[in-house]
Amino acid sequence: MARNSLRRYDVQARYGIVLACASVVPCLGAFGMALRNYNSDIGHIVYGRSLWMITFIACVGLALLIGGTGCLLGLNSAGQRRNEKQRWSWIAFFLGGSVTTLGIILAIAFFVLRVRFSID
To answer: Are 93 and 71 in contact (CB under 8 A)?
Structure first.
């Protein structure tokens, strides 16, 4: 079997933790965008251009895709006898699951609290 084959559980743990850590970046970007545009006076996320919305949705989607993949790789390799990197598997599972959950919360918050502001 090849050294970097995804059939090996330690390779899955390594890829899982890399993907889970990488998913934090777009999730923090989306969180920062939502926090910056949140208006506490009216209780809504206010945005003006559709490019902002596309960027926000792309960040959330990327965080969900990468975080979910890291979570699944961590879950699949956790608890296996031949896995020498058990700790990495569990970290990938919990970090990927946390990012995925936060991404879903951000998406729901955006679609419930969004208000488009345009000056014509």
So the answer is: yes
Instruction: Residue count of the chain, please give it.
Output: 120
SS3 103: helix
Crossing angle for the helix pair 50-77 and 24-37, to the nearest 10 degrees: 140
Closest CA to 92 of 43, 24, 42, 34: 24
Angle between helices 24-37 and 9-22 (to 10 degrees): 20
Round to whole Å and give the CA distance between 50 and 38.
16
Structure tokens at 45: 């996320």
CA 58 to chain centre: 11
Taking only the tens of pLDDT, the chain with its 120 residues reads 577 777 788 888 999 999 999 999 999 999 999 999 998 888 888 888 789 899 999 999 999 999 999 999 999 988 888 888 889 999 999 999 999 999 999 999 999 988 877 654
Tokens of 113: 């609290």
